[in-house]
Design a protein that fits this description.
The chain is mainly alpha-helical. It contains 22 helices and six strands. It is about 70% helix and about 5% strand. Helix 1 runs antiparallel to helix 2, helix 3 packs across helix 5 and helix 8 crosses helix 10.
Amino acid sequence: MAEFARHEKTERQLQRLSDALKTGRLQPVRRLLNSLPAGEIADLLESLPPEPRNLVWELVDPSLDGEILVHVADEVRSSLIEAMEHEELVEATSELDLDDLADILDDLPDQVIKQILTVMDRTDRERLAQVLSYPEHSAGGLMDPEVVTIRSDVNLDVVQRYLRMRGAMPEPADDLFVTDREGRYLGRLALADLLCREPDLPVEEIIRRGDRAIAVDLSAADVATEFEHNDWVSAPVVDPAGRLLGRITIDDVVDVIREEAEHNVMSMAGLDEEDDMFAPVFASSKRRALYLGVNLITAFVAGWFVGIFDHTLEQVVALAVLMPVVASMGGIAGSQTLTLMIRGMATGRIGPGNTSALLNKELAVGSLNGLLWALVVGIVALLWFRLPMLGIVAALAIVINLVMGALAGVLVPIVLRRLAIDPALAGGVVLTTVTDVVGFVALLGLGSVLLL
């Protein structure tokens, strides 16, 4: 419900923005834009065709440019960057957190990167280089190296004086991370304890030593799982020796979850979540052509199997009417299992230890649903064509294809992952081919045996 409400809000804002643009009066557009947070402006920009998008981009408050560039999809970001002067880009990125800057640095022109690095102090350059040294979709790539640390051998009043001297803290701030003299992570000190406990208490007496740290090479998806399981607002990131390198905050994790969800949905149609929805026609056609080509090949494979039974189809034309019914039922049943598998694998809930149990369960579900809908299809076929044996053939084919759909739904993503192929991208095509072929062969094969 919350996701639906968010999309409805974006839709209303987009309508208001479109209505304001049609009037030709830009001041209301400017007021509307600059009353919104950067993330919502990014959503609106992605929702506009190139010409109005460029006009709206010119009306955005320059102080928001950097944050908006971080939020928009890669292809949209590239188009916005092309429309900006180098000085504008340097100014827009100067206030970004280092982890956000690292996310968009590769999209910036070389001259702009040189200017950004020139105005940075040595410490920030080293921190930025540290973040860039890790893979993008890892804890190291997500972390912000700017982190406030304290020692365990001081009292709370010393910590309070230190924070007042700093004058500011990175946001969001819920805990302080405690390290030893070598920079190794020891635990957390909650800000609530810092403010509410006696000032002369030693830090080492009240830190939470049991809270785990995140390994720097942990995948982004696993980082999100850790945050979910531990209800963290922020978490420390450490190297293999236990030295504190930085922290990851909940806003970064929300981005990971959203990107993963978008990737899974878009990949199932052979699309990329970072593409511009309003990209030029030729570019979009080129990107989609490969997926359509692969699908065409699989369709020809299914057609070839149908061709084997051309004599059967000539004799019993009614089988041609039932072919899409059988194939569709198997495809839908398989897609349900495939979606369950892809989601389970993405969240780490499915592995070697429980795959066989899940396979048995899905086969049982496929068998039960197969028997139910076999009865329905068999009765419909009997009443429609007045051929009792045709109803039996259709019923048996439905059972076979639903069971095969369940089997393929479990095994296809496992095999694809072992081949280093994204199951979300290729799983649907492979599954559809399997259920189409099995459905056609079962229906026409049984028809050849029982009807001729």
